[in-house]
Write a structure and sequence with these properties.
The protein is α/β, with parallel strands linked by helices. It has helices at about 35-45, 75-80, 115-120, 130-135, 140-150, 155-180, 185-200, 205-220, 220-235, 240-255, 265-290, 295-315, 320-335, 340-385, 435-450, 470-480, 495, 525-535, 540-555, and strands spanning about 1-10, 15-20, 25-30, 60-70, 90-100, 105, 110, 125-130, 390-400, 410-420, 425, 455-460, 485-490, 500-510, 515-520. Among the domains are: about 1-125 and about 455-520, Rossmann fold (3-Layer(aba) Sandwich); about 185-335, no CATH class. The strands form 3 sheets. The chain has a 6-stranded antiparallel sheet with strand order 2-1-4-5-6-7. Helix 7 runs antiparallel to helix 13 and helix 10 packs antiparallel against helix 11. It is elongated, with a radius of gyration of 42 Å. The mean pLDDT is about 85.
Amino acid sequence: MLTNLSILDLAVVKALDLDLTQGMSVLTGETGAGKSILLTALGLALGDRADSGYVRPDSKRAEINLEFDLADAESARLWLQAHELDDGPHCLVRRVVNQDGRSKAYINNRPVTLQALQQLSGKLVEIHGQHAHLTLLNADEQRRLLDAFAGNPALLDELNACHRQWHQAYKELSALIKASADQTEREELLRYQIDELQQWDMKLFDYAALSEEHGRLANLGQILQTGQAVLDGLYENDAVSATSTLNRSVCGLQHIAHYAPELPAIVTLLTEAKIQTEEAALQLRRFLDSQEADPVRMAELENQLAILHALSRKHQIKPEGLPAQLAKLEQEWGALTHSGERIGELQTRTAQLLTDYHALASQLSQQRRSGGDRLQRQISAMIKELGMPQGEFLVAIEPLPGEAPKPNGQDHVCFMVSANPGMPPKPLAKVASGGELSRISLAIQVTTANDKTTLTMIFDEVDSGIGGGIAEIVGQKLRSLSQNRQVLCVTHLPQVAAQAHHHLYVEKNHQTDITSSNVRLLSDGERVEEIARMLGGVNITANTLAHAEEMLNHANAGVEPVT
């Protein structure tokens, strides 16, 4: 149950801290007072998309906080535990929208993704907007409502899991059967390509090492020429070599070192340089002596590299990728040679999954028909109460064409209505009257709500297009819903508002440069005045006030108040 809603700097709301209780609460106020922004705040906190337009002018961010009592919300508690977000008997949901449109979401003060917030929200709150009847025109939504009413979610999950497994196996089977048509030709090509690559020992294949060895042999003349020149300059030319120069420098400085204390350190550095130079010259000499031209090896390397480059061009890869290409071809060849066995396995598996699917689909169809009979009786009774005395609601369930498994079963579900005697039932989408459609939609929402686990339901002007005595019945239905759950209803009808256990009033404040809205709980006396305003408009008479008080007394007569 939603116990507290707090808002900071969201559109016309500067600051709001609203406590909510069990039962039915209505939200009323003048047109434009800001009733819709409270629904917007709830939607944002529960995972709706955000943008910078929601932030109040001259504010850095908007913030919405919701607090829930989880005493009877078992599915929400289990979800929080599974995601390691549980924090006792209460749950805090927070959404922050920054001035640049970016937002952050928190559950029990821990940051979460928007997807996670939406998953939890579906277990806590259900919002029925004023255009819910348009959603009900969708065939998938009608099927979903029927399945929820008939208690089919677990069976539906099992059927859809079976369908996914069948689809995956059938897709693989079809690909293998199609490939087998030209399998022999493909096998021959793969075998030729594999043999061609297997002339190389791919486990020891090192293209980089071959390229390096070829480069050395190809440039051996330059290596020897340059190396000898460097060796002469370092050591072997006594007249001008680096070692001779360093030796003379050391001897010269040693003779004068006792005249300047700074010179011995320099002598040491030059001596070390002489030693390093001699060592470098020695290693260079050993290297040059080890180099030897090998025309036979050179020709062999050039031949190998030419073959490797030709293979890499043929397979459109770099030479370094040839081992991976061989492994890929071997895997494909192995799959082809064993495709006959795999085809047999998949044929057996798809046949079994098909049998399982049709058994589940048959069970689902039976439960839908049983649930559809109950649903149409209950909704037919309710729309009669809602001013359609001759109305009949029907749930038509027809098999979908084709034998292939389909997601969500083999049934097409269609809600149909006959508004007048002798008139054939028509799909809900073809009901002409907007008022009738609103009433039918409300009847469906109220009827199916009893089979839902969410303990907080919000109705946003779902009573539009309804008035008079029908409006009072709508209010009674919403009030009956609140006996075992929390109901929050935004309404413009006094008949509905009078049925509430708690009355919240939205009003605008024009005392500052920026308009703001506030919400407060009305006392019994203030409720009479607000119901009278909704009844009588601008001029409220004593009769209007008496009528309002009578409506409230009638709504509460014989009903235990909810606290």
